Amino acid sequence: MASIIPLIDVRSAAPLDAVLRAAARTPDAAGSPVADTRGRRLHDLRISVTDRCNFRCVYCMPKEVFGRDYPFLAHSDLLTFEEITRLARVFVDHGVQKIRLTGGEPLLRRNIERLVEMLAKIGDVDLTLTTNGALLAKKARSLRDAGLKRVTVSLDSLDDATFRAMNDVDFPVARVLEGIDAAAAAGLAPLKVNMVVKRGANEGSIVPVARHFKGTGHIVRFIEYMDVGATNGWRMDDVVPAAEIVRSIDAELPLESAEPNYVGEVAERWRYRDGGGEIGVIASVTQAFCRDCTRARLSTDGRIYTCLFATTGYDLRGLLRGGSGDAAIGDAIAAVWRQRGDRYSEIRTANTVRPAKVEMSYIGG
Ligand code: SAM
């Protein structure tokens, strides 16, 4: 029998006033970088440009919940490209060096290339995008021309039947592979491939995916299935631990561990011993990396969230549309970041009573 998952709308904003008042009591040393209560700097910004997606991946936007009646945001609720760019600039002024466009499916947002072009002009920012690849063959060249530097493509299996079952809209894997080839040909490199591993769904695809991309220069990152949002019916038993993923690849394609590229890198790196490239594993459940988390998220309707597992965000769109200047918006961003103490993944257990968290499609995966 299909499980029915209750739908609770938790997309309400927390009041910014209290945060701003608290920040005013602890003025910051001029020019010092913005750090949170655990000393973590603001470095990355993920922007959800749409809460809609053309896939219904069973672990992310299950059909039973995100059906015809689901209350997706109205167009007027979405941040405009001008609003996104303005906020992005303010975030960059407060230390952000890396921006990832995501969603939902970012390539569904009309004229996304124009947004890329606007963001690329901000300057010295690592600009990238995560996509399911369905529209990538068509858009790779124009995205590159607009100034996109790299791309991450989600791909959960090479086996067509498994892939169709996981995206749950019967989308063929061959079309995503075409998108990956088009992105590589357009120079969107290094290209990363994200594979979420869910026990009983696609763990048989781990080694074939690793083998397929070995030697191509593309970097596959195997991601532990997480309890994001409130709708995917997550259970700890469904998680295939990163250590098990590494063991199964290593048994057939020998690996050795590699140093992180930088402090706080989310993926743990592994290299093929024969020089065939590298893979990463993202052990967000079994080896939480909250300690080094430097990511803020901007929801589709302009709220700032400081954790993927957050229950509340703070409304920046209200400031934008209410006529606040960049300095006031910057103060709000800094104040929200400074009071941040999130470390959900470090304290989660199989028995954690999970609050009604916002969905990944809205907050930005
Ligand atoms: N639509 C785009 C895509 O498919 O890449 C971007 C949004 S999606 C939410 C971003 C990433 O989050 C994808 O790689 C997806 O596989 C991953 N993801 C979604 N739900 C997840 C979950 N429950 N656990 C782990 N990763 C998840």
Folded structure, characterized:
The chain is α/β, with parallel strands linked by helices. The protein is 30% helix and 15% strand. It is built from 12 helices and 13 strands. It has helices at residues 16-25, 81-93, 112-120, 136-146, 160-167, 173-186, 206-213, 242-252, 317-321, 326-338, 344-347, 360-363, and strands at 13-14, 44-48, 98-102, 126-131, 152-154, 192-197, 219-224, 255-257, 268-272, 278-282, 295-298, 303-305, 313-315. It has a 13-stranded mixed β-sheet. Strand 11 (295-298) and strand 12 form a beta hairpin. The relative contact order is 0.18. Mean pLDDT is 90; it is low at 1-8. The protein binds S-adenosylmethionine (SAM). S-adenosylmethionine is lined by residues 53, 59-60, 102-103, 105, 130-132, 154, 194, 196, 223, 225-226, 228, 232, 360-361, 365.
Characteristic terms for this protein:
365 residues, alpha/beta, 13-stranded mixed β-sheet, 30% helix, 12 helices, binds S-adenosylmethionine, globular
